[in-house]
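So, read this over?
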Amino acid sequence: MPRQGLFGSSLVKKYWMALTGLFLITFLVVHATVNALIFCNDGGVTFNTVAHFFGTNILIRTAEVVLFLGLILHIVDGLMLWSQNRAARPVKYAMEKGGANRSWYSASMGILGTLILLFLILHLFHFWVRTRFNGIEEFGVDAAGQENLFAVMQLTFSYGGGVVVYVLGCFSLFWHLLHGFKSAFQSLGLNHKRYNGFIAFCGTAFSIIVPTLFALMPISIYFKWIQ
C-alpha cells in the first residue's frame, strides 16, 4: 500500500513537489530580477519604483497570497516525503548503500529544505513584516521622494553576521535547486533522452546564476560597491 499523508501517496507528493517547485522557480526569476535593480547604483530609485508598484498592485498582492500557500505546501510536502523515505529505508541499508544510489544533495534535501525555511523566516522578518506591518517611514524617502525600501536593505546588510547568514541561505538554495530543478521535470514525466541534457543544463545554470545573484546583493551592499 502506498504511504499516505497530507497529500496522499508518495507519488502524489512528488507531483505536488514538482508543481509547487516549478511555481516557486518562476517566482525566483521575478524576485531576482526586481532585486537586481539595486545594481543600477542610483541610490535605490529604480528599485524603489518597481518595488512600490509590486507592493501596491492588487493583482500582485493577490499572487503574493498564492505564493505563500505554494511555499508552505512545498516545504511541508517536501519534509513529509523526505521523512517517509527515511522511515521506509532500513538503517543498515542506508548506511551501506545509500551513498551508492543517491547523490549527497538528494539524500540531504530535508536538511537543506529546513535551512532554507529558517533563512526564509529571517528574510520575511527583515523585509516583508517590516514593510507590510511595521512601516518604513523611519527610513525616509529616496531622491525621487519614494518610500525607501532600499534603505532597509542597506541597514539589514550593514552587519557582517547578517550577510553571512544570507550567503549561507543562498548556498543552500543552490544545492536545493541543483537537484530539484531536474527532479521536477522527472516527477511530471517531462523527461526524454532527446532533451534531458538541455533540461539538466538549464537546471544547473539556473541553480548557479540565481543564488549567486541573490548572494551578491548583501555582499555588494556590505562592501558599499553599490549605494
In short: Residues 58-88 form the longest helix (31 residues). Residues 1-6, 92-101 have pLDDT under 50 and may be disordered. The two ends are 59 Å apart (CA to CA). The chain has one domain: 10-222.
